[in-house]
Write a structure and sequence with these properties.
It is a single chain. It is elongated and about 80 Å long. About 35% of the residues lie in helices and about 20% in strands. The protein folds into two domains: about 150 residues, Leucine Aminopeptidase, subunit E, domain 1, CATH 3.40.220; about 300 residues, Zn peptidases (Aminopeptidase, 3-Layer(aba) Sandwich). The chain is α/β, with parallel strands linked by helices. The structure holds ligand BES, manganese (II) ion and zinc ion. Manganese (II) ion binds next to loops.
Length: about 500
């Protein structure tokens, strides 16, 4: 879908379909001749109820009226949902050029960004393996964003980010026999080739072993697929702020290994590389936006399978950091991969760390598919990450680190164990395991097990959600703004909330 911005009135654009938001108790902003739209509101057919849809024909165009709710409750998320709803109706009606007339007096919610994201994310379909012509459903060719103020920059930024999210979804949705570690590495290489300031190194099994990454190598040992240690470096000229280290779990299929998973849920494990996909696509977006911040991205890509060469419960391996790890459960493989990748990111110069991983089923039991779990060992860094998630409109919820969780992953025969002897607190003990490998660098951990898939949001079709791409880009934007000096920080889009400092639809405290 082509996306453009205009300061022309929606009625005078080439659009065949115009979307107008309705705010409770407020009239239709720019009605068409004869007051056709207001008449629809007065008749009760068009409502301001969030995402309610009504359609009218007037002045040679189709008009979609979408409810935005009460003005006091407007939010970027509400606008994304409204845009997704309007997109669905417009597509059903075979619209070709859709113009969104942005709501007035809503600047603080960055409506251009929200509407473009909501539309492009809702339009996503994964059809790579469907033969024929995408089951006849038509596609909208162009989205025009109309506002009194020129929104071209906001629109361009939103297009880059939404396309990166959709690209991450493609990586997630692609079956594991196609989305191998090598394929994930090839995607990273392809992105790097598009941007001068971005470079990529991919090394395989031999190098992973040679670099002493015994924990990562242990996971890869059970598979014939070549693993890939993917290192992306984004080094724009003149960036001076701290080097951001983004680390992603790239397990392209997690069978559980010898501690094998039940058959029923195993197919889902193709998306165990979601963290890696988020890191790769976020780096592409960061480079495309030319953000003035240095970034190192590290993705550990491998399968976790069973074979005669697979790691076994009770094995002890030596990680790149020198710490020995006792493998109590081969299904706790993500932390083994990440241990060596975190260490590698620090060795590559990372001065702030964020890892993104589908790490534990426990976080899904706790937070469902609504919030991602969030841990951090440095308050300033925690505030940056929470602020970035808030800017991006992704929900993260702070969870505790504590010495008592750390004690639970002390090994009996080795320095650390990859599983707690208790079944309780598994998401927190996993975080403390990772904590041992961060080398004292301010670190945040995002457990996206629940939010990576089938989130049920109107702008996230079934399957991969591309979660955390938006947050990682927003984080680089924040660091870039800090690096440039005071006063350049992007305006905050949403109101304060409990904990993570304000996720827009967080419950009231
Ligand atoms: N990849 C899984 C976590 C997961 C579960 C992701 C469901 C997506 C959906 C991870 O490697 C895993 O198996 N974790 C174990 C850890 C346990 C053995 C300590 C878990 O959560 O059960
Ligand atoms: Mn596992
Ligand atoms: Zn896993």
């Amino acid at each position: 879908m082509r996306v453009t911005a205009t300061t022309e009135a929606a009625a005078s654009t080439a659009a065949d379909t115009v979307v107008v938001g309705l705010v409770e108790g407020e009239g239709v902003p720019h009605d068409v001749e004869g007051g056709v739209l207001q008449a629809l509101v007065d008749a009760g057919e068009a409502k301001a109820k969030p995402c309610h849809l009504a359609v009218a024909h007037a002045g040679g165009k189709r008009w979609i009226l979408v409810g935005l709710g009460a003005r006091g409750k407007l939010s970027a998320e509400g606008l994304r949902l409204a845009a997704a709803a309007a997109h669905g109706r417009a597509r059903d009606l075979d619209a070709q050029i859709v113009c969104w007339e942005l709501p007035h007096k809503a600047r603080e919610h960055r409506p251009a960004r929200a509407v473009v994201e909501g539309t492009l994310l809702a339009a996503y379909r994964f059809t790579a393996f469907k033969s024929g012509d995408d089951n006849g459903s038509s596609k909208i060719a162009e989205l025009v964003v109309s506002d009194h103020v020129d929104q071209a920059d906001e629109v361009a930024r939103a297009v880059v980010v939404a396309e990166a999210v959709n690209a991450a979804r493609d990586l997630q949705n692609t079956p594991a026999n196609h989305m191998t570690p090598t394929a994930l590495g090839a995607r990273a290489q392809a992105i790097a080739a598009e941007h001068g300031a971005l470079s990529c190194e991919v090394v395989g099994r031999e190098e992973i072993v040679a670099r002493g990454m015994g924990a990562f190598a242990a996971v890869a040992a059970g598979s014939d697929e070549e693993p890939a240690l993917i290192t992306l470096r984004y080094e724009p000229e003149g960036a001076t702020g701290p080097v951001l280290g983004l680390v992603g779990k790239g397990v392209t299929f997690d069978s559980g290994g010898i501690s094998i998973k039940p058959a029923g849920s195993m197919a889902d494990m193709k998306y165990d590389m979601t963290g890696g996909a988020a890191v790769i696509e976020a780096l592409g977006a960061i480079a495309a936006l030319g953000l003035p911040v240095r970034v190192v991205g590290v993705v550990g890509a491998t399968e976790n399978l069973l074979s005669g060469s697979a790691m076994k419960p009770s094995d002890v391996v030596t990680s790149a950091s020198g710490l020995t790890v006792q493998i109590d459960n081969t299904d706790a493989e993500g932390r083994l991969v990440l241990a060596d990748c975190l260490h590698h990111a620090v060795a590559q110069g990372a001065e702030r760390l964020v890892d993104v991983a589908t790490l534990t089923g426990a976080i899904m039991s706790t937070l469902g598919r609504v919030y991602s779990g969030f841990w951090a060992d440095d308050e300033e860094w925690a505030a940056d990450v929470a602020g970035a998630a808030e800017d991006a409109g992704e929900l993260i919820w702070r969870m505790p680190l504590h010495e008592r969780y750390a004690e639970l992953v002390k090994g009996a025969t080795a320095d650390v164990a990859n599983q707690s002897p208790l079944r309780t607190g598994a998401a927190c003990t996993a975080a403390e395991f990772l904590h041992r490998f961060t080398g004292g660098v301010p670190w945040a951990h995002l457990d996206i097990c629940g939010t990576a898939w089938d989130s049920g949001r109107a702008y996230a079709p079934k399957g991969g959600t591309g979660v955390m791409v938006r947050t990682l880009v927003a984080l680089a934007e924040r660091l870039g703004a800090e690096g440039r000096g005071a006063g350049t920080e992007a305006p905050r889009s949403d109101a304060e909330s409990p904990q993570t400092g304000s996720n827009e639809d967080a419950p009231a405290a």
